[in-house]
Amino acid sequence: MGHSQAEKAASRERVLRIAARKVRTDGVGGLGVADVMKEAGLTHGGFYKHFASRDDLVTQAAAAALTEGSAKMERAARKNERDARAGLLDAYLSGQHRDTPATGCALVPLGAAAGRDGTDGDVHLKDAYERQVRAYLDLIAGLDEDAENAEEARAEAVLMLSALVGAVLMSRAVADRDLSDEILETVNRRLRHRAGPRPAQA
């Protein structure tokens, strides 16, 4: 790859990274091309060298934001060597995750937009959102070593992921910080209780 092509690729990656952060914090409707390009240190006129349209940028930024979550969740789970499931719960249902949506799981802020996709002209997010839901379900089900069978592990994964996303969404939406903390702590405690105590791993 020549110097100019490498520079172009780096610029595009920078724009995409900034846009992915913005869709986490502002949603797809709040993503402005001019603001993204300015933050990336590029001219607004250069946008079309990298993306076909604003919708193209939004779609790719949303997909990038969603896929980044899998690696983060897996790293969070593996931090607790004794109980990977508890590690994931502690990271996802933390005050830090609640308070830093720009680097958090994109399933939370993008759910509403994906739900509207195809009904009111929003960009096509359903496929990217569904892929990430399936990836998370596979990850969570794989952590449940005590499940009696794959069907049981899958059902518990659906319940856990739904509770995680819903808890973070509500904890960010309420004004009372004590209530916000209560939501996170209660869901964490109840999900741990469902799993029961875990034996130490060899």
Structure description:
The chain is an all-alpha fold. The chain has one domain (53-195): Tetracycline Repressor, domain 2, CATH 1.10.357. Helix content is 70%, strand content 0%. It is built from nine helices and no strands. The longest helix is centred in the first third of the chain and has 26 residues, at 54-79. The radius of gyration is 19 Å and the shape is elongated.
Structure keywords:
disordered C terminus; Tetracycline Repressor, domain 2; mainly alpha; elongated; 202 residues
Report the C-alpha radius of gyration, rounded.
Answer: 19 Å
Summarize the helix and strand pattern as letters.
HHHHHHHHH
For the termini, the CA-CA separation is: 47 Å
The total number of structural domains is 1
Large-scale geometry: elongated
CATH topology: Tetracycline Repressor, domain 2
Tell me, rounded to a whole number, the average pLDDT.
Answer: 86
- The fraction of residues assigned to DSSP E strands is under 5%
Structural class: mainly alpha
Helix content: over 70%
Number of helices: 9
Gross CATH architecture: Orthogonal Bundle
Give the CATH superfamily.
Tetracycline Repressor, domain 2
Low-confidence stretches: 119-123, 198-202
Largest sheet: none
